[in-house]
Structure prediction request, 314 residues.
Amino acid sequence: MPKLESKIDVSAEGDMTSMIDMTFQLIAFFMILINFADAEANQDIKLPGSQLAVPPAAPPEDPIVVQMNRDGLILYSAEEFQPLAFVKKRLIVKRDLLKKGGKNPQTATVIIRADKNVATKFVREMLETCQELGFETFAFRAAALKLD
Amino acid sequence: MSSSATSLPGKIDINMTPMIDVVFQLMAFFLMTFQVAAVEGDFHMRLPSGPRTEQGTGASELWQVRLTADDDGNLSTWRLDAGTGGRGTATLPLLRAETARRLAQCRAAGLAEPQVELRCDDRLRYEHVLQAVEVLAGRQPGTGAEPDGRAGEYVRRLRIVRADGG
Prediction:
């Protein structure tokens, strides 16, 4: 019986063009939406909601973002939440740096991201500390709610 | 003259594998770091330290809004000076109406913008302070300005102070 020797060269090449197109579209979508500024915002803090708080058109010139959790501890220029006495020392350094750079601390904006459940006492004490150090401009941050 | 015949392949295959690897790595990065964060807005205020300063031509009034809290830190009562008051957040629209009325009177009389002091209990939750600020802003939700189109300058100068015995 004769032996049939068939030599079939099978080469399966799928057309990758469509998939690559779609993948690039997805990457472009995520690149446009990613916001590294928000990455600094601590997600454990639940902001109070507001229908009137206005999203800033442009970031302030010298923003100082101070974040406060529901226990009244503050996250500023550190890895962990700290008590006000610790943060005050950091704010003094910041104020001195501003002055050294020829800037007036009064024009720097202290952005307060405080948890909606924190006792007002802690927010007031932080405000008083900032005022004592010469900061006068504040922005109270709130979650923008949709209008009814 | 001799001609050299070179045989070129008809199709050049570029190895796409490394590029696709990188592209998928990028996509995985963006997918994992992506978070739909709520839009955040600001209430801008100018709060100088020390005693209140007179601005404008005439002496400005001082409005005191007293906010008391229950044991859980929720808004219990509010009172504007010794007059209008209410219980709970449901009655805060009354504060909005009263401040709008008094503000209109101030402006009609040519007085300077009033100054507002929020006197809050220590345990009052911060959420209610911002609610009061929103109400004092005198604006209706959905509008960019007060009904008469003027910015609520007085709100940007308000003070948050400790209530006596709070």
Summary: Chain A has one domain: 39-144. The mean pLDDT of chain A is 85.
